[in-house]
């Protein structure tokens, strides 16, 4: 791997049926690494990993954002918002043939709070006239300051290469997070860390805000075919560490038990989870540590 290998996480959001899956299939093709469908609503699923010699793009689905009809709990909105603030790029996909709808407004409102670059992907351009496309572009331009507006046809492949080139250019330098031949049933560090982080946020709502990271230190099979997962929750202050551990370790135990259950469901295997809490002052501001934790803020 060369020094200037690039990598990053890309969230794809948009109403149902706008063509997200079709786009993923087009982009990843044979190389697709679909995560287990067992992962449920509040989680961020890795849709696929695209690895070339120059870069690795990890595409993520953020399910909470696809459900504008339901009244979302604060927590789910928070998870969605956190995810969107941690990825490198956001692709907001719309269906050219349908145009603007209430579901889009919900997403646009959410995006107002996000600082990451957002690309508007107008899909299904094979179904519309050029005039209609111009209309859409002008309409959406007023809604939000998109990094770029890119019309594509995921089904026929029009302009998809261009989109990938644009994204590749903007990716930060970074490690190859996943092996080139990433396969489905392999333990997924990122998803596991998100599952744990979700429990932490859930149980500590006010006290522990965004200032935590979960690092998966090690995953291995032990003699009994149980999967050993060792993870560290990184906080910024020792007071936060205290809260996370709780009275007689009660909080950490609760977080651990619930995380383990979810990880087992995800991987379909018995899991032994070891959780630690570490304090790293001001980690959010330290570039090298952010790197270590797989974040790009
Ligand atoms: P998702 O719900 O956002 O994942 O949407 P899907 O990828 O499942 O696509 C929904 C429907 O739209 C499917 O029938 C696709 O074949 C169709 N579709 C997706 N992309 C395009 C496109 O670029 N052009 C056309 N004409 N149809 C598309
Ligand atoms: Mg889909
Ligand atoms: K933004």
TrEMBL record:
Residues 40-44 are annotated as: G2. Residues 204-281 form the KH type-2 domain. Belongs to the TRAFAC class TrmE-Era-EngA-EngB-Septin-like GTPase superfamily. Era GTPase family. Residues 6-173 form the Era-type G domain. It is found in: Cytoplasm; Cell membrane. HAMAP family: GTPase_Era (MF_00367). This is GTPase Era. Residues 14-21 are annotated as: G1. It comes from the Bacteria. It comes from Oceanobacillus aidingensis. Transmembrane segments: none annotated. InterPro entries: G_ERA_dom, GTP-bd, GTPase_Era-like, KH_dom-like_a/b, KH_dom_type_2, KH_sf_prok-type, P-loop_NTPase, Small_GTP-bd. Residues 123-126 are annotated as: G4. Residues 61-64 are annotated as: G3. Monomer.
């Amino acid at each position: 791997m060369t020094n200037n290998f690039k990598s990053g996480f890309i969230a794809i959001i948009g109403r149902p049926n706008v063509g997200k899956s079709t786009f993923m299939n087009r982009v990843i093709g044979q190389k697709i690494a679909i995560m287990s469908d067992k992962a449920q609503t509040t989680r961020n699923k890795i849709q696929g990993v695209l690895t070339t010699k120059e870069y690795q793009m990890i595409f993520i689905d953020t399910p909470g954002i696809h459900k504008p009809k339901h009244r979302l709990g604060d927590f789910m909105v928070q998870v969605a918002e956190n995810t969107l603030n941690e990825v490198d790029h956001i692709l907001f996909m719309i269906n050219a043939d349908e145009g603007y709808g209430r579901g889009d407004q919900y997403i646009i409102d959410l995006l107002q709070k996000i600082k990451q670059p957002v690309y508007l992907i107008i899909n299904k351009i094979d179904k519309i006239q050029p005039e209609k496309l111009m209309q859409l572009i002008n309409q959406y331009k007023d809604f939000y300051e998109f990094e770029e507006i890119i019309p594509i046809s995921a089904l026929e492949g029009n302009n998809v290469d261009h989109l990938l080139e644009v994204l590749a250019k903007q990716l930060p330098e970074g490690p190859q997070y996943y092996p080139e031949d990433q396969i489905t049933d392999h333990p997924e560090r990122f998803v596991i860390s998100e599952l744990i982080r979700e429990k932490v946020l859930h149980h500590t709502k006010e006290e522990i805000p965004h200032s935590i990271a979960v690092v998966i230190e090690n995953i291995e099979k032990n003699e009994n075919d149980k999967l050993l997962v060792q993870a560290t929750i990184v906080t910024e202050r020792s007071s936060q560490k205290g809260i996370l551990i709780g009275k007689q370790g009660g909080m950490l135990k609760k977080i651990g038990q619930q995380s383990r259950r979810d990880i087992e469901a995800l991987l379909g295997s018995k899991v032994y989870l070891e959780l630690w809490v570490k304090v790293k002052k001001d980690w959010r501001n330290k570039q090298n540590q952010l790197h270590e934790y797989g974040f790009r803020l």
